[in-house]
Amino acid sequence: MSEVKITVRPNGPLRIEGPVKLVDAEGNEWDVAAKPAFSLCRCGASANKPFCDGSHNKIGFQSVESPVKPTEA
């Protein structure tokens, strides 16, 4: 399988690049096979959930925290 890259955008969506299977809470699979990349909403305001539609810009979404790289034990 090819590499998958997930980028946490500051105050924005999660950007997914690479081949993945996207399944919702009910077990329904979204057809994203033809998309080389897509963004998932983090703000909750998208009219196209689970995908980002740019609403985070309109509502001034601010993520609570920046991702922190875990330290090795």
From TrEMBL:
Record-level GO cellular component terms: cytoplasm
InterPro entries: FeS-contain_CDGSH-typ, MitoNEET_CISD
Pfam families the record matches: zf-CDGSH
Entry keywords, A to Z: 2Fe-2S, Iron, Iron-sulfur, Metal-binding
GO molecular function term, any single one: metal ion binding
All copies of domain Iron-binding zinc finger CDGSH type, residue ranges: 21-62
The keyword Iron is annotated on this UniProt entry: yes
Organism superkingdom: Bacteria
Protein's UniProt name: CDGSH iron-sulfur domain-containing protein
